[in-house]
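To: structure desk
From: M.T.
Subject: fold request, one chain
Message: Could you run this one when you get a chance? Sequence is below, nothing fancy, just the single chain.
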Amino acid sequence: MRNKRNPPRQPLAQARPKVVSKKIALPAKKTKSARGPAAIAKSPRSSKQRAPAKQPSRGLASRRAPASKRAPEIFARLRARYPDAHCALDFETPFQLLVATILSAQCTDKRVNMVTPALFGRYATPEALAAAKLEELEELIKSTGFFRNKSRSLVGMATAIAERHGGVVPSEMQMLVDLPGVGRKTANVILGNAFDRNEGIVVDTHVTRVSQRLALTTNTDPVKIEQDLMPLFPRDQWTLLAHLFIEHGRQICIARAPKCEECPLSDLCPSSRV
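Reply: Done. Structure tokens follow.
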């Protein structure tokens, strides 16, 4: 019989519930990880810190530099490349240069130089040219092309100089451009080469092509190109600059097949093929 006063003891396992202790996970100790390329690549923080440094700008030697930064180096290199650059037209007086420049329109300077000796021998002064017969004048300059228009321009120019300026070629821009057959480009040639006055920059086909390829201008109109070039170069360089660009355009920066591999400006030129 069961003893009511002293009930049988329960097994120890039932009397005292087993307490299971919970292990608290401690943070792992920081260990120095390998800093090899693989470890750096896995860590976004490290990869950000180890980003390659940007290459320094090449300054004046960069074709991406602004035109104002490249212009001084362009001039210096062209001057070194073409130390003998000068006006290719043969002349002894401002009047001879003015006649030769009018004849050079749509014609090579070499051809003009072949024509002018006989022309100057026949008409040595503005007064003599003003009195010339168009038929005789046309025959003398026929090989330069557009000889009829050029003959009328020459006679009109000479007449204006004889009547308005006492037979003396004026040395002022406005007076020159008021002469028949004389535009701003011709006036710049006369002022810069006959009078040593830098009033502007001569812009012909060579100057246009070279300045556009060098990204010194985006214009196509000669007057606007001149306005773009003038602030980029000191005034005392304007006349020589045109000669340098013309020489470069003839020898290297040719219209159809520029010789970029020989160009001293290839690293400064956005249009370079090398």
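Reply (cont.): Residues 11-15, 36-60 have pLDDT under 50 and may be disordered. Let me know if you need anything else for the meeting.
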